[in-house]
């Protein structure tokens, strides 16, 4: 076993320090927000934010639990994420599997069109006009269909399908399986790490939907959680009703910290269960283009 030189040790120390700084840059604001959400409103008004509140309280969380606007926005976000992710994965997998077949006519042209959309976009106004013409304004379909397939994700999934041994499909065809049965019973079970990885990618994108919701949704009762959170944190309370409760009480600093934490919590809760697939899935399909 070779010994590390002073240069190698210095390089490793530098890497550790950089990673530690990045970890602190992420952890410190999160811990500050989490601890401040349990502080009293009076303490936060005096100190701004605290790492260790003098009086721990669940006042902010009880406030949000009884707030119909927050519950509605949270429910909307769950619906948008679950349905949107299902649509994303279904269409992405079907398209990727079809384009991964070498005997499909015109797949080169379709692959080029997919790649073209990664380089050039129709623009916000033309897209809005199309959505409006289809009658999707004030409908969640305007959120689900506009980004139904993310080209980059689809290309990686297609590349992974191309790396699978062709003998898997040939043996299934000999047994009388059709293409859909091959996909469902042969291809998808061996692609679980890749599927979990891109399900997480799509879920995060849907959960964080903000700009398109503001653009296509006019009814405030349909707003997802990110729009609600933005109005609570940034917008002048005198300008928007969502910044004030039905009883006339404004959102206090503690409530704002609690809203931020509850917004991030679902994805933080889901990630540990997907972590064992995530690292492996990140490498799949990234070699063959």
Q: What does this 3D model show about the protein?
A:
The chain is mainly α. The chain folds into 2 domains: 6-47; 67-283, MetI-like fold, CATH 1.10.3720.10. It contains 14 helices and no strands. The relative contact order is 0.13.
Task: Kindly list the characteristics that best describe this protein.
single chain, 289 residues, mainly alpha, MetI-like fold, 2 domains, 14 helices, 70% helix, disordered C terminus, cell membrane, membrane, Carbohydrate ABC transporter permease, transmembrane helix, MetI-like
Provide a concise account of the structure shown.
This protein is an all-alpha fold and 289 residues long. It has helices at residues 6-36, 41-47, 59-65, 68-99, 107-119, 124-133, 141-146, 151-163, 166-174, 179-190, 192-207, 211-216, 225-233, 253-283.
Q: What is the mean predicted local confidence, pLDDT?
A: 81
What is the helix fraction of residues, given as a range? 55-70%
Low-confidence stretches: 236-249, 285-289
In the CATH classification, which architecture of the largest domain applies?
Answer: Orthogonal Bundle
The span between the termini is 37 Å
Global outline = globular
Which superfamily, in CATH terms, is the homologous superfamily of the largest domain?
A: MetI-like
Quaternary = single chain
| Number of strand elements | 0
Number of helices: 14
Provide the succession of SSEs: HHHHHHHHHHHHHH
Structural class, by secondary structure, is: mainly alpha
Rg (C-alpha, Å) = 24 Å
- Whole-number count of domains: 2
Largest sheet: none
CATH class of the largest domain: Mainly Alpha
- Give the percentage of residues in beta strands: under 5%
């Amino acid at each position: 076993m070779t010994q590390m030189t002073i240069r190698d040790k210095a390089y490793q120390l530098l890497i550790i320090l950089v990673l530690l700084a990045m970890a602190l840059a992420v952890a410190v604001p999160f811990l500050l927000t989490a601890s401040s959400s349990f502080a009293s409103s009076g303490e936060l008004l005096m100190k701004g934010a605290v790492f260790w509140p003098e009086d721990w309280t669940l006042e902010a969380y009880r406030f949000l639990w009884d707030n119909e606007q927050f519950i509605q926005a949270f429910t909307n976000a769950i619906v948008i994420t679950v349905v949107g992710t299902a649509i994303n994965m279904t269409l992405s997998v079907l398209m990727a599997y079809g384009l991964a077949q070498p005997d499909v006519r015109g797949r080169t042209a379709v692959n080029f069109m997919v790649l073209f959309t990664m380089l050039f976009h129709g623009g916000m106004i033309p897209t809005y006009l199309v959505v409006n013409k289809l009658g999707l304004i004030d409908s969640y379909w305007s959120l689900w269909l506009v980004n139904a397939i993310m080209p980059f994700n689809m290309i990686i999934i297609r590349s992974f399908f191309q790396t699978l041994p062709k003998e898997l499909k040939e043996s299934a065809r000999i047994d009388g399986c059709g293409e859909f049965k091959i996909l469902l019973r042969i291809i998808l079970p061996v692609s679980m790490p890749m599927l979990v990885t891109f399900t997480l990618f799509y879920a995060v994108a849907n959960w964080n939907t903000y700009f398109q919701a503001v653009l296509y949704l006019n009814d405030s009762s349909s707003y997802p959680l990110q729009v609600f959170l933005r109005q609570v944190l940034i917008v002048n309370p005198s300008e928007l009703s969502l910044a004030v409760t039905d009883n006339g009480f404004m959102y206090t600093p503690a409530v704002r910290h609690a809203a931020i934490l509850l917004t991030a919590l679902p994805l933080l809760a889901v990630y540990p269960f997907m972590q064992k697939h995530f690292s492996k899935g990140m490498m799949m399909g990234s070699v063959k283009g």
